[in-house]
Amino acid sequence: MKRKFAFSVMAATLCLALPFAASAAETVKIAIAGPFTGANAAFGDQLWIGAVAAAEQINANGGVNGKQIELIKGDDACEPKQAVAVANRLADQEKVAGVVGHFCSSSHTPPQKFTMRPMCCRWPAVLPTLSLPSVICLQ
């Protein structure tokens, strides 16, 4: 069941992210943002393991439109200030096509407020672990 959920989340992210991916890229970069250190690291590890399993399955079946998925890890440690830095790094340096995360509600809200621009959507985010899962566009 967990694997099916992870695959569904990854598929939803890809469906939303693919139009935003650079056409010349050999891979589609998808960020996984969560607590990979700190008190909630076990949850981040589970999120990462599920994402890797989904990406491996998709890549083994030819990828997405012939492009392989490349996962980028973003450690926010469930800390709001760190989450903003992670969101900026993923957008500006890593140039991800989409993001799955952030895991903690406290880490989700600051990057959304800081980076959200509804009229200029640069990449979508799927937030599967919040009590009210949502899909938003981050600038």
Task: Summarize the helices and strands and which ones pair or pack.
Blueprint: H1 2-17, E1 27-34, H2 41-60, E2 68-75, H3 80-92, E3 98-101, H4 105-115, E4 123-127, E5 134-138
Parallel strand pairs: 1-2, 1-3, 3-4
Antiparallel strand pairs: 4-5
Structural overview:
This protein has about 140 residues and is of the alpha/beta class. It is built from 4 helices and 5 strands, in the order H-E-H-E-H-E-H-E-E. The chain has helices spanning about 1-15, 40-60, 80-90, 105-115; strands at about 25-35, 70-75, 100, 125, 135-139. A 5-stranded mixed β-sheet has the order 2-1-3-4-5, with helices on both faces. Strand 4 (about 125) and strand 5 (about 135-139) form a beta hairpin. Helix 1 (about 1-15) packs across helix 2 (about 40-60) and helix 3 packs across helix 4. The longest helix has 20 residues, at about 40-60. The chain is globular and about 35 Å long. The model is unreliable at about 115-120 (pLDDT under 50).
Short description:
This protein is of the alpha/beta class and 139 residues long. It has 4 helices and 5 strands; from the N terminus they run αβαβαβαββ.
Helicity, as a percent range: 40-55%
Strand content: 15-25%
Distance between the termini: 32 Å
Report the oligomer: single chain
Give the spatial strand order of the biggest sheet.
2-1-3-4-5
- The secondary-structure class comes to alpha/beta
Q: How many β strands by DSSP?
A: 5
Which residues form runs of ≥5 with pLDDT under 50? Answer: 114-120
Mean pLDDT over all positions: 75
Provide a count of the helices.
4
Described by strand count, sense and barrel closure, the largest sheet is: 5 strands, mixed
**What overall geometry do the principal axes of the alpha carbons give?**
globular
Order of helices and strands: HEHEHEHEE
As a whole number of angstroms, the C-alpha radius of gyration is 14 Å
